[in-house]
Amino acid sequence: MDYKVVFDVASAGYKSWDFPAHGLILVGVGVILISFRKRLPGWWGKHPRVSNVFTFFYFGFAVFWTLISFFSTYHNYTSLAEAEKANSVSVVEGVVTNFKPMPVTGHTMEKFCVSGACFEYSDYVITGGFNNTSSHGGPIREGLPVRVTYVRNAIIKLEVVK
Fold first, then answer.
1. Containing H/E element for 146?
2. Which among 144, 107, 119, 115 is positioned nearest to 3, based on CA atoms?
3. Strand 3-8's sheet: what is its strand order?
4. pLDDT digit string, tens, across residues 123-134
5. C-alpha 20: how far from its chain's center?
6. Among 4, 12, 89, 121, which residue is least crowded by beta carbons within 10 Å?
7. 100: phi then psi, degrees, rounded to nearest 5
């Protein structure tokens, strides 16, 4: 069969950047709090020690959360890309069966099986692998001939029949 690649982790690149980027907003708020902590109105202005402890704790937590979320998502992506490059992957080919689409409202994982190998994913789960559900324009449908390259349960390359 002749296949068309619809997802490949190597060409998709690091696509989870927006998750840790939200932490940069919290870091920015922390910088503002640190800059203006001595001029805060009301209770905060009357309790400078508590204000200082809170603002530095807030800023420290925001930086910690941003760094941890970046390194964990980037590590997930690079480990999948390296597995594909080293060819330490599994490949299954066949027809999509037991397809259970995720509803437009989310709240469940989309699932399907191919020749006994089953996969689940969601647009709302952060991963370096394929996670584009059919309700959000993804290509998977019941009966569709596919070739899936995967590591554990992460789809790192998805090909569909042309």
1. strand 145-151
2. 144
3. 3-8, 154-161, 145-151, 90-100, 110-114, 117-121
4. 889 999 999 999
5. 10
6. 4
7. -125, 100
The 10s digit of each residue's pLDDT in 103-157 is 888 789 999 999 999 999 998 899 999 999 999 999 999 999 999 999 988 999 9
CA separation for the pair 98, 116 (Å, rounded): 10
pLDDT at 46 over 90: no
Place of tokens 């480990």: 79
Q: Are 150 and 119 in contact (CB under 8 A)?
A: yes
pLDDT (average), residues 47-68: 92
Long-range pairs for 72-77: beta carbons < 8 A, 24 or more residues apart: 73/14, 73/16, 73/17, 73/19, 73/20, 73/126, 73/128, 74/14, 74/16, 76/16, 76/126, 76/127, 76/128, 77/9, 77/13, 77/14, 77/15, 77/16, 77/128
Which tokens go with 60? Answer: 């420290």
